[in-house]
């Protein structure tokens, strides 16, 4: 979860089309997810069940075979996959997790479905359909050549039918920092019911537009939807309970289609959306392929768009120091440049703590530098770079510059020196210096300190407690 969104989905190329920048989901051209391929995955789940006692239930061979098969498909497509095992009262179960190894890992968009069936049948609508649709979307994304902004991850959950065990196990075992990176979880459980409805989970916490994006997508395809409160009945529940934004679709289970619903969706009023729900007849014939086709395209639409959504944080509060490790107390962390410059050597005091950047002091012709990249918000009305500096020197001529340190800004290929201090500025008390960097607002630049010494008589430029602040 991240705070405010800020604008600017860059230009994205989709299937050769140059699309205008936008910060809203909906800017990316939606893919056509192949119903033929998705149906082939369902045939595979049916065949796995048929050759494993008629089901794909937790702890039975049909489940593990389903998980192995899904994982192998994703591996072949280039996903980084994990088979996560956990124990249940019915035996060992597995989650298959697949991550596309591109895009910003700090912003993760997930889609998932449960892969297990009940013990009484092959579980083709429940939930071969969600699994096949999410799998085909993952394979299509891998083949699409998209450049993802965010990190895309798919979850195929075990033991949903035993009480959402796989998804709960997954979220409970994610370190807090990893949970925090998940921006959205999309769930698909039963999406081709033979007498289908078009239900969208009503989950709608503030700031989660995914529900409304699903509705808008179906509306654009002339499919009317209804919101449904699915409570804790599927795997999004575990994510939602952590405060993660969730959304999902559902074509109905044991509930009865009303005549009003039959009028807008077709099918049979007074009959269950899925009369074979949790029964042995939930087999390869228990599908509405129109529902499947529409639903998988909705999955594709959501995945393509949310993968490009700009989840970056808004500008930092004014007054914050935008530099990391500004007093060097974490050693060289966050700084790049000449090795050994950042030191806790006791032969020169720090301004604060014990570490500082000690440039030069060699007494021979050398240069040394350290720098750090910083993004100066475009909203800044003032921006300054300040530092504390202590200069001691063995130079004795009181009027000639021999050794210098430059305070520089590197902006792409242009380096600008904003201040220069030399042996003439010697002062063994620390002095604070400030330069104006407002000219760089809206840019990511490198703040750099560059020391240069001539062939003899050392000058030490010791810098500490550096800050870039804006207002
Ligand atoms: N999770 C239920 C099952 O697998 C089906 C379901 C999905 C019910 C979504 C309500 C909403 O049996
Ligand atoms: Zn079920
Ligand atoms: Zn289900
Ligand atoms: Ca220090």
TrEMBL record:
Does the keyword field hold Protease? yes
Biological process, per Gene Ontology: proteolysis
Q: Metal-binding as a keyword?
A: yes
Q: Which CDD domains match?
A: M28_SGAP_like (cd03876)
Q: Give the signal sequence positions.
A: 1-27
Which segments constitute the Peptidase M28 domain?
A: 95-301
One function term, GO molecular function aspect:
aminopeptidase activity
Q: State the superkingdom.
A: Bacteria
> What keywords were assigned to this record?
Aminopeptidase, Hydrolase, Metal-binding, Protease, Signal, Zinc
**Family from the record:** Belongs to the peptidase M28 family. M28A subfamily.
* Official protein name in the record: Aminopeptidase S
Q: Which species expresses this protein natively? A: Kribbella steppae
């Amino acid at each position: 979860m991240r705070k405010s969104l800020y604008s600017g989905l860059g230009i994205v190329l989709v299937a050769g089309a140059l699309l205008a920048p936008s910060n809203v989901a909906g800017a990316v051209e939606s893919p056509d997810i192949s119903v033929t391929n998705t149906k082939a995955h369902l045939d595979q789940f049916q065949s796995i069940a048929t050759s494993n006692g008629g089901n794909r239930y937790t702890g039975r061979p049909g489940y593990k075979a389903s998980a192995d098969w899904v994982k192998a498909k994703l591996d072949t497509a280039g996903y980084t996959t994990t088979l996560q095992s956990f124990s249940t009262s019915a035996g060992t179960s597995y989650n298959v997790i697949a991550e596309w190894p591109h895009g910003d890992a700090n912003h993760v968009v997930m889609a998932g479905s449960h892969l297990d069936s009940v013990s009484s049948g092959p579980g083709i609508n429940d939930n071969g359909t969600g699994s096949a649709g999410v799998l085909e979307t993952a394979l299509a994304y891998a083949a699409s050549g998209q450049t993802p902004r965010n990190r895309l991850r798919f979850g195929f959950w075990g033991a949903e039918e035993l009480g959402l065990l796989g998804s709960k196990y997954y979220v409970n075992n994610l370190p807090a920092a990893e949970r925090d990176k998940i921006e959205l979880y999309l769930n698909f459980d039963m999406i081709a019911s033979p007498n289908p409805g078009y239900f969208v989970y009503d989950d709608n916490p503030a700031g989660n537009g995914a529900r409304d994006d699903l509705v808008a997508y179906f509306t654009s395809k002339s499919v009317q939807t209804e919101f449904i409160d699915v409570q804790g009945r599927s795997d999004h529940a575990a994510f939602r309970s952590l405060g993660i934004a969730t959304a999902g679709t559902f074509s109905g289970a044991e509930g009865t289609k009303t005549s009003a619903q039959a009028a807008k969706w077709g099918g049979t009023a007074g009959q269950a959306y899925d009369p074979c729900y949790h029964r042995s007849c939930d087999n390869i014939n228990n599908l509405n392929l129109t529902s499947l086709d529409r639903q998988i395209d909705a999955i594709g639409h959501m995945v393509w768009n949310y993968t490009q959504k700009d989840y970056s944080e808004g500008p930092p509060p004014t007054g914050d120091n935008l530099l990391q490790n500004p007093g060097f107390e974490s050693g060289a962390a966050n700084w790049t440049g000449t090795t050994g410059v950042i030191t806790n050597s006791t032969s020169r005091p720090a301004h604060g703590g014990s570490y500082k950047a000690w440039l030069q002091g060699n007494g021979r012709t050398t240069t040394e530098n350290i720098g750090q990249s910083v993004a100066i918000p475009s909203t800044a009305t003032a921006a300054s770079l300040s530092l504390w500096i202590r200069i001691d020197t063995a130079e004795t001529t009181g009027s000639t510059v021999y050794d210098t340190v430059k305070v520089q800004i590197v902006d792409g290929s242009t380096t600008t020196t904003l201040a220069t201090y030399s042996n003439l500025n010697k002062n063994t008390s620390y002095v604070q210096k400030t330069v104006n960097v407002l000219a760089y607002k809206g840019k990511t630049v490198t703040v750099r300190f560059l020391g240069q010494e001539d062939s003899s008589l050392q000058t030490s430029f010791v810098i500490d407690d550096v800050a870039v602040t804006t207002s």
